[in-house]
Design goal:
Number of domains of chain B: 1
Oligomer: heterodimer
Largest sheet of chain B: 7 strands, mixed
Low-confidence stretches of chain A: 27-32, 468-472, 481-487
CATH class of the largest domain in chain A: Mainly Alpha
Helix content of chain A: over 70%
Strand order of the largest sheet of chain A: 1-3-2
CATH class of chain B: Alpha Beta
Number of strands of chain A: 5
Shape of chain B: globular
Largest sheet of chain A: 3 strands, antiparallel
Strand content of chain B: 15-25%
Distance between the termini of chain A: 28 Å
CATH topology of the largest domain in chain A: ABC transporter involved in vitamin B12 uptake, BtuC
Structural class of chain A: mainly alpha
Number of helices of chain B: 13
Helix content of chain B: 25-40%
CATH superfamily of chain B: P-loop containing nucleotide triphosphate hydrolases
């Protein structure tokens, strides 16, 4: 049930919470934590009064939205973890770019140069994964693990060299690993906005093409679509969002933005279009709330808080989601069990009355006082279940308890029982008459068989079954005894 | 429970009876020619044993495969496949497991790389004729958990016609609904595909291929794991396609139903053992060559059952 979304979401959650938590915990002096932000402060942040806050919050929001959009297709293409390898592979690129630029005597931390290096190496990393998969017997997970760690290790090593090159100058490079949202400049925000816009435009323009290759790549290829090139386009969008997001949330956590929001969105809808918008919205919300929270509590790093916010949204979606959330599915299951128990009891009651016309206790039959013990014996249910179901029926006014531990159906109860039994027997007749097509159509849970089958069919089924003792009512096609007679 | 199905099939398959009886004379002719050929030539691996009385037409064939070889890591899966299939027929591709039936379809569509060979559709190379070929892949090839409904999947058949970057409009959705009606799935249009049964999923795939409005349809095991009602719906659809002059090439696994459903058959086991009309080619000798004497007792029983002229066509009685 929602297999991919569950698995990927939980994995992403684990992958990102683990690095995020120590980071979030690595705060300044303890006094900062105990100072809760005051209401005026909160209001200031939300209305984006401060210039710095404005830049950071808007930048983070747009980044979250872009990542949510692009990440949807990555998730559906089952490339979620590939984007993790992609982000880790950027580190050597950044280090090499820094080294090269410093060697050429220029400003080592030229932003454009660094992200160019990052982009080149992330493409190399993705290509390495695909090459390893294609030319060895290793599967996705091994190939990803190898590339991720190898490139990251290379990056750390090169970073060591870079740090020794010009003392102090390379210090800011670690910002790429952990992110430094708070120091976002206006230009960075502009770059993020441009990326977000590009991502949104591409996702809308290529919506059906991306949908097709995510759903059925072979059919797409047979129709003549250039699947490899479309794949490349999709991955390029991911690379762009990753590289832009590096400075904001750091390369370890940027994958979280790409995966968590789409995974959360999956729990709310079965429609891809809605999933896309919802994912963008969740990402934007995570960016907004996360960066806002980080601005309010001065020492908490924004990247980690953004990811934690996104994770909270995911957890809430997993439980409360209207399409596949835990709450909804458990509630549905509970109500179904209750309904089935009710209908079974009503049927048992009706059949007991049907078969008792000639039996031992004619007076009870006339009064229609159904003994509790008789119901208990009819099916393999526990005493507590029967009591509970009788209580529910009584609460709905369908039965009335009478002295020696028995129940009498009311008029409504009798009608309800008749309806249930009629439906059940007609379905049984249908299964016999149309065994070839019945399985796809029989709906035991339907309140009225008329909702599913047309009147002519129902008429012919009713003719199939002989008249029952209760008058114009189909008799059960199989023998009913005092004990379980059916199912 | 089987009884009702039997009565229905007997009534429903009278048209198949008609189709078969008109070709009995051809069948006898075919039998004679087969015996003659095997005596004379000794072996007839890939001969086109054609018992139809039709003269070869000047129109290029809907599907022509020449010298096709497909190999995975130096192990050949298909070897020197040579096929020219006639238009407007229902053609079964049968063979044991691993014989390369799916690979043949995929090689024709360019989904697996060919070591050698040429594919032409109506005389022109496949790459330029894609719009004339409809594809129904195996059901397992897709993740049915994907967040789309049946209507969206059928609309995918129109994507090529819609072209790059343009969205799917209401007109396309209405047309997709019509295709769903043809396969009897209109009421399920807005249901998410994971909530469909196997047979219903297969019908959605078929509707998607129908939406392409192609002239040649390639289907990979459309009858695998579907319920009886879906099977009959699919075969009715195939007959409709045949009546409109389309050609259907279907990878099929159930030997017993081959003579009932298909009028042409390709016997495949890494190479083409024989191909042609069912009466001429679907013989015990050819089946032995295809299945390598592994024709089990049960399959042999099915085969005998299917050939017995005393039995009404389409009776699935004793086997299962």
């Amino acid at each position: 049930m929602g297999g991919t979304a569950w698995r990927t979401g939980v994995l992403a959650l684990m992958l990102t919470l683990v690095p995020a938590l120590p980071e979030a915990a690595a705060v300044g002096p303890s006094t900062a934590l105990t100072e809760w932000p005051t209401w005026p402060e909160i209001f200031r942040v939300i209305t984006l009064r401060d210039y710095n806050t404005r830049v950071v919050v808007i930048g983070a929001t747009l980044l979250g939205a872009a990542a949510g959009l692009v990440g949807t297709f990555l998730l559906l293409r089952k490339r979620a973890l590939l984007s993790d390898a992609l982000s880790h592979a950027t580190l050597p690129g950044i280090a090499i770019a820094f080294i090269l630029m410093t060697l050429r005597g220029g400003e080592g931390k030229n932003f454009l140069g660094l992200i160019t290096g990052a982009a080149i190496f992330s493409v190399l990393g993705t290509a390495s994964v695909i090459l390893i998969q294609r030319h060895s017997r290793l599967k996705d997970d091994a190939a990803l693990g190898i590339v991720l760690s190898a490139y990251f290790g290379l990056g750390i090593a090169l970073l060591g060299i870079a740090t020794r090159m010009e003392a102090g100058n390379a210090a800011g490079l670690t910002a790429f690993i952990y992110g430094k949202t708070a120091s976002m400049l206006f230009m960075d925000a502009v770059l993020i906005a441009a990326t977000a816009l590009t991502a949104a435009v591409f996702c809308i323009l290529f919506f059906k093409e991306f949908t097709l290759i995510c759903f059925d790549g072979e059919y797409a290829a047979a129709q003549g679509w250039p699947v490899t090139r479309l794949d490349f386009l999709m991955m390029s969008l991911a690379v762009v969002v990753t590289v832009i997001g590096l400075q904001a949330v750091g390369l370890i956590l940027v994958v979280a933005l790409l995966i968590i929001s789409p995974a959360a969105a999956r729990f709310w809808t079965h429609d891809l279009r809605r999933m896309l918008w919802l994912s963008g919205l969740f990402g934007a919300a995570a960016g907004f709330v996360g960066s806002g929270l980080s601005a309010l509590t001065a020492n908490l790093p924004a990247g980690a808080i953004i990811v934690l916010t996104a994770s909270a949204v995911f957890l809430a979606s997993m439980i409360l989601g209207s399409a596949r959330g835990l709450l909804k599915t458990s509630l549905e299951r509970y109500w179904l069990k209750r309904k089935i128990a009710r209908e079974n009891l009503l049927r048992a009651m009706y059949e007991w009355i049907e078969s008792c016309s000639s039996a031992q206790d004619p007076e009870a039959c006339v009064r229609r006082a159904i003994p509790f013990e008789a119901m208990l014996a009819r099916r393999s249910w526990t005493s507590a279940e029967v009591r509970r179901t009788f209580r529910h029926l009584a609460a709905d006014g369908l039965v009335r308890p009478t002295p020696p531990d028995a129940y009498v159906p009311t008029t409504e109860g009798w009608e309800a029982a008749r309806r249930v039994v009629r439906n059940h027997r007609l379905w049984e007749a249908y299964l016999i008459a149309r065994a070839d097509i019945a399985p796809g159509q029989v709906d035991w849970g339907a309140d009225e068989i008329e909702h599913i089958l047309d009147p002519e069919m129902i008429e012919s089924l009713e003719k199939m079954l002989p008249e029952g003792p209760g008058g114009a009512f189909p008799e059960s096609p199989h023998p009913i005894g005092p004990h379980r007679g059916d199912d | 429970m089987r009884l009702s199905f039997l009565t229905d099939t007997r009534q429903g398959n009278t048209e198949v009876d008609d189709m078969q009886t008109s070709e009995t004379s051809a069948r006898d002719a075919g039998r004679r020619s087969v015996d003659g050929q095997s005596d004379a030539a000794g072996t007839a691996h890939h001969g086109r044993i054609d018992a139809d009385a039709e003269p070869p037409s000047d129109e290029p064939a809907p599907l022509s495969v020449k010298d096709l070889t497909v190999a995975y890591q130096r192990k050949p899966v298909l070897w020197d496949i040579e096929l020219t299939l006639p238009e407007g027929r229902l053609i079964a591709v049968v063979g044991p497991n691993g014989a390369g039936k799916s690979t043949l379809i995929k090689a024709v569509l360019g989904l697996v790389p060919r070591a050698s060979g040429q594919i032409s559709i109506y005389g022109k190379p496949y790459e330029t004729q894609r719009h004339l070929v409809g594809y129904v892949p195996q059901r397992e090839s897709v993740d049915w958990d994907f967040p789309v409904n049946a209507l969206d999947v059928v609309a995918m058949g129109f994507y090529r016609k819609i072209g790059w970057l343009r969205p799917v409009t209401r007109t396309h959705r209405r047309a997709a609904l019509k295709e769903l009606e043809k396969v009897g799935m209109a009421t399920f249009a807005h249901r998410q595909i994971s909530q469909l049964s196997g047979g219903q999923q297969q019908r959605v795939f078929l509707a998607r291929a129908l939406a392409q409005d192609a002239r040649v349809y390639l289907m990979d095991e459309p009858f695998a794991g579907v319920d009886t009602a879906t099977e009959r719906a699919i075969i009715a659809l195939l007959k409709d396609l045949k009546a409109s002059g389309k050609t259907c090439v279907v990878v099929h696994h159930d030997l017993q139903t081959v003579p009932t459903y298909f009028d042409h058959v390709v016997l495949l086991n890494m190479r083409v053992v024989a191909y042609g009309s069912t009466e001429a080619v679907f013989t015990e000798e050819n089946l032995k060559k295809t299945y390598g004497g592994r024709l089990t007792l049960l399959s042999q029983a099915f085969y005998e059952l299917s050939k017995d002229p005393r039995l009404p066509r389409g009776k699935k009685g004793t086997s299962e």
